[in-house]
Design a protein that fits this description.
- The protein has one domain (21-205): Alpha-Beta Plaits, CATH 3.30.70.1290.
- The protein has helices at residues 45-62, 90-109, 127-139, 141-144, 159-164, 175-178, 184-195, 205-208, 215-219, and strands at residues 11-13, 28-34, 65-71, 75-81, 124-125, 211-213, 227-229.
- 37% of the residues lie in helices and 14% in strands.
- It is globular, with a radius of gyration of 17 Å.
- It has nine helices and seven strands.
- By secondary structure, it is α+β, with helices and mostly antiparallel strands.
- Helix 1 (45-62) runs antiparallel to helix 2.
- The relative contact order is 0.23.
- The longest helix has 20 residues, at 90-109.
Length: 230
């Protein structure tokens, strides 16, 4: 079994519904952000390239790490590790990404109105323990949506970085991925088997929780009465 799956322990989940935003320097978040009314606003390569360019701009500005991404037609997923300072919070990062994407897209398309429908979701994730499970969830998204049969068939994601060692200057490899095998080639082989295995069902775990991690991880943020999922 690949380390970091739910089979190795229990994920502690807090605050289903509309939880408060919690963040900290040097912490991993799973970000989900949807277009207004779940419309398919990302339709062609130029739209997906716009999103890449905007994320790259703010990644350089705020020096956060991007461990994974999947861009869908109506929303996107990011796995972000915040910078090691108190100023560049996840809210500051995402406000920039959302504003610049909406402004540029609407200007190009002569479009008016809101682009994103709601505030982004950003549960904290203990990446050392549950990071690989999160990578699986993010990269399986196009398969769950019925768009493709395999994660490798969807080009607008970071899957190939992990599965085949592809170059993508937008992505920083998650440390827990590098820890699953003695070499990157062997780690990629295990990753392909892991992500190509059982399809994870759509679940509010990865979007509506406040935090996902061990009791010790949750205690760092004053979370003491978790509902358990596992």
């Amino acid at each position: 079994m690949v380390p970091g799956t739910f089979g190795t322990g229990i994920a502690n989940v807090i605050g289903m519904g509309r939880p408060p935003r919690i963040t900290a320097p040097g912490i991993t978040h799973h970000i989900t952000m949807r277009c207004v009314n779940s419309e398919f606003l990302f339709n062609d390569r130029s739209d997906f390239q716009l999103l890449r360019d905007v994320i790259a701009h703010y990644k350089k500005k705020y020096a956060f790490k991007l461990y994974a991404y999947t861009f869908m037609n109506s929303h996107f997923h990011l796995c972000i590790r915040t910078p090691d300072n108190d100023q560049d919070t996840i809210s500051k990062i995402m406000q920039g990404i959302a504003w610049r994407t909406a402004f540029t897209y609407n200007r190009r398309r002569a479009r008016k109105g809101h682009f994103f429908s709601e505030r982004f979701k950003s549960p904290l994730v203990e990446s050392d323990t549950y990071g690989l499970q999160l990578l699986k969830y993010i990269h399986q998204n196009p398969v769950r949506a019925g768009i493709v049969n395999k994660p490798a068939e969807w080009e607008h994601s970071s899957y190939s970085v992990y599965s085949d060692g592809a170059d993508d200057d937008l992505v920083d490899l998650m440390p827990s991925f590098l820890g699953i095998a003695a070499s990157r080639k062997r780690a990629s082989a295990q990753f392909r088997e892991f992500v190509g295995g059982v399809l994870e069902p759509a679940t509010p775990l990865w979007t509506k929780a406040i935090a996902i991690g061990s009791p010790g991880f949750l205690n760092r943020f004053g979370i003491t009465a978790p509902n358990r999922y596992g």
